[in-house]
Write a structure and sequence with these properties.
Elements (H helix, E strand, L loop, with lengths): L27 E5 L6 H8 L11 E2 L2 E2 L5 H7 L3 E4 L13 H12 L4 H14 L16 H13 L5 E5 L7 H18 L2 E6 L2 H7 L2 E6 L2 E6 L1 H6 L4 H8 L11
Helix pairs in contact: 3-4, 3-5, 4-5, 5-6
C-alpha cells in the first residue's frame, strides 16, 4: 500500500488471513481469485520462498519454515513448481538436458550420468524424445516448452507440484493437451497438485477441490462442479458471471 508521505512508514498489508487447507496424496486443490487476492503469496509460502508471520506450512508432517537449511534443501525434492510462462522459466542458454536435470544438480546427490538418464526418463513421461535433450528452448513450441517445465518438476518424483497458471500462456488448443498430461502424470505417479489459477474451466478440469480466495480470505470451498453450479458467496457468483460464454447468433 502506498505511503501517505515520503517519511511515513508504509502501512501493514495482510496478504492472507486465516487461510487453511490440506491436500491428500494424489488429489488436486485449486486456488482461484482475481489478481491481488493472495494466490501467489500462497504459492510462495508453500514453496518456502516466503516465511509466514504466523501459522504453519506442513509437507508430509514437517513444518517447512522451521526446518534447518540442510533439511529444507532435502525436503525440496518432495515439492516442485511449474510456472506460468514456459519460455521465461527456462534458461535459453542451457540445453533441455541441463534444464530438466537442474533440481537434481541442486540436491547434489547424483552423478552427471545419472542426471542425464533421469532427464531422459522425465522427458519420455511428458511425451518428448530423448533426442530432444540436446536442443534449446527456442526450438520448441509453447506447449512443448511447458512439457519441458513439467519434466523438470517431475524429475525428483515430488509428492506435490505447485502449478501457477500453468496453461494461461498457451493457445487454447494446447491447454487441454497439457491439462490431460498433468492428469495422466497424477494417475501414474500419485502426485498432488496445488493449482493457482483465475480460469474456472481449468480448475474444473483438473481439481478435486477448490478454494475461492478474496482479499486474502477463503470465502468458499468445495468440489468444483458443485461449487460452480451452486455458488453461495457473492464473490464466487461474480467470478462465474465474468466467465465469457459463446452465444451463437441465429440467422434472421
Amino acid at each position: 500500500m502506498p505511503r501517505e508521505s515520503l517519511f511515513a512508514a508504509p502501512k501493514l498489508v495482510t496478504a492472507l488471513n486465516g487461510v487453511s487447507f490440506s491436500i491428500e496424496q494424489g488429489r488436486s486443490l485449486g486456488i482461484v481469485g482475481e489478481s491481488g487476492s493472495g494466490k501467489s503469496t500462497i504459492a510462495r509460502l508453500v514453496m518456502a520462498l516466503d516465511k509466514p508471520t504466523s501459522g504453519r506450512v506442513e509437507l508430509l508432517g514437517r513444518d517447512l519454515h522451521t526446518l534447518p537449511r540442510a533439511d529444507l534443501r532435502t525436503a525440496r525434492r518432495d515439492i516442485q513448481m511449474v510456472f506460468q510462462d514456459p519460455y521465461g522459466s527456462l534458461d535459453p542458454r542451457q540445453t533441455v538436458a541441463r534444464i530438466v536435470a537442474e533440481p537434481l544438480e541442486a540436491l547434489a546427490e547424483t552423478t552427471r550420468a545419472e542426471q542425464r538418464e533421469r532427464a531422459s526418463e522425465s522427458l519420455a513421461a511428458v511425451g518428448l524424445r530423448s533426442t530432444d535433450m540436446n536442443k534449446y528452448p527456442h526450438e520448441f513450441s509453447g506447449g512443448q516448452r511447458q512439457r519441458i517445465a513439467i519434466a523438470r518438476a517431475l524429475i525428483t518424483r515430488p509428492k506435490l507440484i505447485v502449478a501457477d497458471e500453468p496453461v494461461s500462456a498457451l493457445d487454447v488448443s494446447v491447454q487441454a493437451q497439457v491439462l490431460n498430461l498433468m492428469n495422466d502424470l497424477q494417475q501414474q505417479f500419485g502426485i498432488s497438485y496445488l493449482l493457482i489459477s483465475h480460469d474456472l474451466a481449468v480448475v474444473n478440469h483438473l481439481c478435486d477441490d477448490v478454494c475461492v480466495l478474496h482479499r486474502g480470505v477463503i470465502v468458499e470451498r468445495g468440489a468444483p462442479q458443485q461449487l460452480f453450479a451452486h455458488a453461495q458467496h457473492p464473490y464466487t457468483q461474480a467470478l462465474l458471471a465474468a466467465v465469457p460464454r459463446a452465444e451463437p447468433v441465429m440467422p434472421a
